[in-house]
Amino acid sequence: MLGLRDQIRNVEIRRRTRVTDIAQRVTKLKWQLAGHIARRTDGRWGLKVLEWRPRTGKRSVGPPRWGPPQRDTSGRPKLVLEPRTVKEPVNSLASTSQASSIFGGARPREERLKELKGE
Hints:
Elements: H1 10-17, H2 22-39, H3 45-51, H4 96-100, H5 109-118
Protein name: Jg24331 protein
Organism: Pararge aegeria aegeria
């Protein structure tokens, strides 16, 4: 019989109970999956990711340089916008008192419940 004071290593306990170490099992399954992905030939991206090597060197600083602007060769007519006919935006608030409060005209729920109880 074993007690708490007995100092037996985990390896020995696993050997006696014939239980496999979970870390070893997970590692083995990961390698099996990697081998399975490496053997696939159906063109999925898993093999490309497995074999991918990051670029070496430093990236250039600043925005990408794509070269001179390209001319439109699609043959579609360009969209011509006319000047605005309305001074104020369509979705602007009706009064400035609503705009000053983040809740507009609404009150917190608790105040409304107190108001209803008082009636």
